[in-house]
Write a structure and sequence with these properties.
- This protein is mainly β.
- The chain has a single domain, classed as Jelly Rolls (Sandwich).
- Helix content is 0%, strand content 56%.
- The strands form 2 sheets. Strands 1, 2, 3, 4, 6, 9 and 11 form a 7-stranded antiparallel β-sheet that branches. A 4-stranded antiparallel β-sheet has the order 5-10-7-8, with no helix packed on it.
- The chain is globular and about 40 Å long.
- The chain starts with 11 loop residues before the first strand and ends with a strand.
Length: 109
């Protein structure tokens, strides 16, 4: 498993937040010089479903969550330092039981 980044240099941070589920999921976009994009976010306790257009890699920076990909019946728990991949044109259910789950979402071409 690759190491979860602790910082990004030479990026543009978008100040307007992406706010979902009445503020229980909040992220900010960061843009790289190669035109790639990531979001850095927080998920507060609750159960949420996200759909994907592009494939995504969700890296868990801190906290924990339980995830079920749309194409699976398996629920897997992820904690800080772990990641999961989500296929394009699909989605996933994510549950944060307590605390805050911090994540980096990379959009994979």
């Amino acid at each position: 498993m690759s190491a979860i980044p602790t910082e990004f240099t030479n990026v543009t941070a978008v100040t307007k937040a992406n706010v979902y589920f009445d503020g229980k999921v909040v992220s900010h976009s960061i843009l790289f010089s190669d035109s790639s994009k990531k979001t850095l976010g927080l998920i507060y306790p609750g159960s949420f479903h996200f759909g994907t257009d592009k494939a995504e890699r969700m890296e868990i920076v801190a906290g924990s969550c339980e995830v079920k990909l749309d194409a699976s019946d398996v629920k897997t728990t992820y904690t800080g330092g772990q990641y999961f991949d989500v296929p394009a044109k699909s989605g996933f259910d994510i549950v944060v039981a307590d605390g805050i789950c911090e994540y980096i979402c990379s959009f994979i071409d």
